[in-house]
Amino acid sequence: MKQSELFLKTLKGEKAGYTPVWFMRQAGRFLKSYRRIREKYPLLEMFTNKELIVEITLLPKKLGVDALIIFSDILIPLKLFGAKIIYEDGKSPSVIMDKSNIQYHENLENLSFLFEAIGEVKRHKKDLALLGFAAAPFTLLCYVFGGVEFFKLRGLMYENPDGFKKLMDLTTKMTIDYLNMQLNSGCDAVQLFDSWAGLLDEKTYRELVLPFNQRIAKSIKPSIYFIKNSHHLNHLLNKMDFDGFSIDWRSDLVQVYTSTNRCVQGNLDNTVLFADEATIKTKTKEILKQTEKIPHIFNLGHGVLPQTDEEKIKMLVDFIHNETGRFS
C-alpha cells in the first residue's frame, strides 16, 4: 500500500496498518535546506513563486514523512479580498485592506501560482499524501483585524453579532472555494487551521463560529480540523463533519475519538523535541499506546519550532514507523 493510500484510509477512519506521520510546519526554519533558500528570497516571493513553493514543499520528503503539506501561508487567500500582505523579518505579518467593505469576487485565478504548484508537487511525489490548508474563517479574520488577543474582532462579535456573521459568511464562501480548488489541483486532503478559536468561550464558539466551520466540513472532503487550546470546546467537535480532528497536547486523543468517532491527529508537545532521544521515545510511545486501536495520524500538538534539531525529527519518524509496523 502506498503511503498516500494508507494516510487516506486512516483519515477516513480505518486502522489501516502502521501509524502515518507528518508535522505541521515541517517545511520550515528548522531545516537547513529551508534556511539556505530563505537567505536568498523574501517571504512573500517564497509564498507566491510557483517554483519555490514546489521546491520547499518537497524538502521534508527526506525526513521519511507520509504526507507533504503545500508550502504557503494562511494569509495568502486574503489576496482574494484585495488585501496587501506585508512580511517583515522579526515582525508579525500585517494586512492592509478596507475592513469596512470586504468583498470577494471569486477571483481564484489570482492564486494560480499556488494551484499550479500543487499539481507539480503531486506529479513529483505521487506516493506521498499531499495536504492543502487554509485558516478557518474566525482565525483568518483575527489576522485581518489584528490587535492583542484580537480584541478588535472579538469586540465586534459581542457588539454586532449580525455584522460579524456577515463577515464569517463571506469568508466561509471564499474558504470553501479556495480549499476546493486545492483539492481539484491535486491535494489528497486539506487541513483547516482554527488556531485562535480556543480564545472563545463555549457559547460564543457554538453560536458564532461552529455553524460556519460545519458548512466547510460538509463542503470539503477529506478534511482535518485543527484547534488549539480546545479542552473546553472538545465536546462540540462531534457537531462538525470533518474526517479528522487534530488537537494540541492539552487534550486527550482517545477522549476526542470516543466523542467524535473520527480519526484523531497529534499530539506530542513540540517542546518534547528539545529533550534527549530516550525521553522523546518514551513520550511518543505513550501516545502510540493510547491510540493503538483507533485511527490515528501522528503529529505534534502544534508546528515544529524553528530551533528544533532536524535529526530528532528524522529519528522520531523512523521510531514511529518501526514501533507501529511499517518496517516489520
Automatic annotation (TrEMBL):
Classify the source by domain of life. Answer: Bacteria
> Annotated Gene Ontology MF terms?
uroporphyrinogen decarboxylase activity
Q: Name one Pfam family in it.
A: URO-D
Q: Which GO terms describe its biological process?
A: protoporphyrinogen IX biosynthetic process
| Recorded GO CC terms | cytosol
Question: Which species is the source of this protein?
Answer: Hippea maritima (strain ATCC 700847 / DSM 10411 / MH2)
Xref: InterPro entries? UROD/MetE-like_sf, Uroporphyrinogen_deCO2ase_HemE, Uroporphyrinogen_deCOase
Residue span(s) of domain Uroporphyrinogen decarboxylase (URO-D): 20-29
From the Swiss-Prot or TrEMBL record, give the protein name: Uroporphyrinogen decarboxylase
What keywords appear on the UniProt entry? Decarboxylase, Lyase, Membrane, Porphyrin biosynthesis, Transmembrane, Transmembrane helix
Query: What's its EC?
Result: 4.1.1.37
Regions that span the bilayer: 128-148
Pathway, per Swiss-Prot/TrEMBL? Porphyrin-containing compound metabolism; protoporphyrin-IX biosynthesis; coproporphyrinogen-III from 5-aminolevulinate: step 4/4
